[in-house]
Specification:
This protein is an alpha+beta fold and 108 residues long. Helix content is 26%, strand content 15%. It has helices spanning 3-11, 18-21, 46-55, 75-79; strands at 37-44, 84-91. Strands 1-2 form a two-stranded antiparallel ribbon. The termini are far apart.
């Protein structure tokens, strides 16, 4: 399936509160393996979710490890970025693990 059809399927899971509608257990493996697919969550506003549905994601110009679209396997973390949660199917590419503040790969 192409990105748009996967996004539309993910938008079917939009909820107003991950803490009430979704349960979370630490995934295994803890660090996803390159080349696999995982379910992940993206927190945003309702207006931004509609814009994502109509035009797709626009990668940020900056972020903790540079430009990109950020998501989390923890819906509670995604919820901290907005009250509308998108459930995504993510193809894992290069994996970067940052487990402490001021890690050398962090950009801000």
């Amino acid at each position: 399936r192409d990105f748009r059809s996967r996004l539309i399927a993910g938008l079917a899971h939009v909820g107003k509160s991950a803490n009430r509608q979704l349960s979370f257990r630490r995934p295994t493996p803890r660090v996803p393996v390159e080349g696999t697919k995982i379910s992940a969550f993206h927190g945003t506003t309702a207006a931004a979710a509609r814009a994502i549905e109509s035009g797709g994601f626009i990668p940020s110009k900056s972020g903790m490890i540079g430009p990109g679209v950020y998501c989390s396997r923890d819906p509670s973390k995604a919820e901290s970025y907005g009250d509308t949660i998108l459930k995504l199917e993510v193809d894992i590419g290069k994996v970067v693990v940052i487990e402490y503040q001021r890690h050398p790969l962090q950009q801000n």
